[in-house]
Amino acid sequence: MNSKTALLLAGALIGGGTVALSQAHLATATAPAQAALGDSYRVLNLFSDVFNRVRSDYVENPDETLLVEGAIKGMLGALDPHSSYMNPKDFKGMQAEMTGKFGGLGIEVTMEEGVIKVVSPIDDTPASRAGLLANDLIVKIDGDEVQGMTLSEAVDKMRGAVNTPITLTVFRKGTDKPFDVKLTREEIVVQSVKSREDGQIGIIRITQFTEQTGDGLKAAIAKIQSDLGKDKVQGYIIDLRNDPGGLLDQALEVSDDFLDNGEIVSMRGRRQEQVRSFPATPGDLTDGKPIIVLVNGGSASASEIVAGALQDHHRATVLGTRSFGKGSVQTIIPLGSNGALRLTTARYFTPSGRSIQAKGIDPDVVVTVDLPPELAKAQQPTIGEASLKGHLPGVGAAKGKEESGSLAYVPPDPKNDKQLNYALDLIRGLQVNAAFPPDPSKGVPN
Predict the structure, then answer these.
(1) Catalytic positions, please?
(2) Which residues contact 223 (CB under 8 A, 6 or more apart)?
(3) Is 405 left (phi over 0), alpha (psi -120 to 50) or beta?
(4) Is the residue at 286 inside a domain?
(5) Which residues lie below 8 Å from residue 319, measured CB to CB, with a gap of 6+?
(6) Which residue, 62, 81, 111, sits at the end of a domain?
(7) Domain shared by 17 and 47, yes or no
(8) If you ran DSSP here, which 8-state letter would residue 436 be given?
(9) Is position 270 within any domain?
(10) pLDDT the model gives residue 286
């Protein structure tokens, strides 16, 4: 919260001098500014009236801190699904998560219609091993109804001491009734980057963009080149499926590792000073070898930045199904000892000027997945930003008319992974109905 906003809220809560101050400002402001200030102070006075009435007349003596926190959460909840207030405990948990090490179940979630919706389980965590899937709805946590909890309260309840049990009651579309999933909390240490070789092809899986990702990618490429011989590597597959995103600087670093020049991504807010462009620097760690990027409905945010940059610069073929469509920028604004504000401040745009928000990245080569019978019976729905209630609209599409997202499922056995196997065949030249991108010297498409 900036100092101006803090002062306005303080005036509203204290009462008294607020109206006199607003009149002084109105006297020197232009007509449009006067109208805006008048609306702001009218709303703040309304808040002050309600706050004071609750404080004086509620049936029990209320906790004023909880009242203000609740008001802030409600205010941010009216904006979009990604703006929120974090109390000091939540803020500390978020910081721990971005280091790639935290306690809990290993699951990315959002709030929808009063229940917790799974965005993506993180690889090799209790959540993924228990079979939780994207779009599962968590309706109870240890028997307690999720309805009525905030997202941060539900997440806090799912976290806990290592080796302690927890039971989630889950509803999955296509099932007759909710079912229980029993898990044991673990210390979640996310290995952001994993790699292996298949013949002369390097396969690099990025599970999440944490503080470790940039260094992890460089180490993975170096290992593949050492194992296979740098000149003998046929190409690389960068697997971003079910990667929910994370830190912007890591997405920039990963993109830059494959690009020699040009823009990686730009951010555009509502004010001119919020427009920023992030350029690539010389140096392609793969020496121009073919790259295929795998995406699906669980690829979001930082994953979409990487896929969009490499696609627009013709540096990689994007293969799979449409990505999630989270193309908004969240700025973390610390509030001193009071936690932090996560506020949506801008939209992301790919180098060619495409907005990712509520649209996603369309692959160059569409390869759908084959669901196993038990999941096909459940009719797993697609997952995407445009399906989230209150989402920020995309650019160039009316809200509610956007198209984003797809199935977020990756077969656990690589032998059954049609998208991965198609990518391997494509690099080996066994597929003739899909070509690699044209020479990057032809420029970025418009």
Answers:
(1) 301, 312, 326
(2) 195
(3) left
(4) yes
(5) 292, 293, 294, 295, 363, 364, 365, 367, 419, 422, 423, 426
(6) 62
(7) yes
(8) P
(9) yes
(10) 97
CA pair distance 235, 258, nearest whole angstrom: 12
pLDDT reported for residue 313 = 98
Q: Nearest Cα to 247, choosing from 272, 281, 288, 216?
A: 216
The SS3 call for residue 315 is coil
Bridge partner list, 179: 170
Q: Does residue 173 share a domain with residue 204?
A: no
Structural contact between residues 158 and 166, judged by C-beta atoms closer than 8 angstroms: yes
In a domain, 76, yes or no: no
Give the helix/strand (H/E) hosting 401: none
Task: Evaluate whether residue 215 is within a structural domain.
Answer: yes
Query: Which residue range forms the structural domain that includes residue 261?
Result: 193-442
Q: Domain count of the chain?
A: 3
**Its pTM surpasses 0.85:** no
- Distances 435 to 184, 380, 425 between C-alpha atoms, Å: 46, 31, 12
Same domain, yes or no, for 169 and 210? no
Query: Rounded to the nearest 5°, which phi and psi values hold at 49?
Result: -60, -45
The answer to whether residues 287 and 210 belong to one domain is: yes
Same domain, 226 and 239: yes
Q: What is the mean pLDDT, run by run of 10 residues, along the chain of 446 residues?
A: 30 28 46 68 90 96 93 91 89 76 82 84 89 91 91 86 92 90 89 95 95 96 98 97 93 98 96 92 96 96 97 98 94 93 95 95 95 73 84 75 81 94 93 51 43
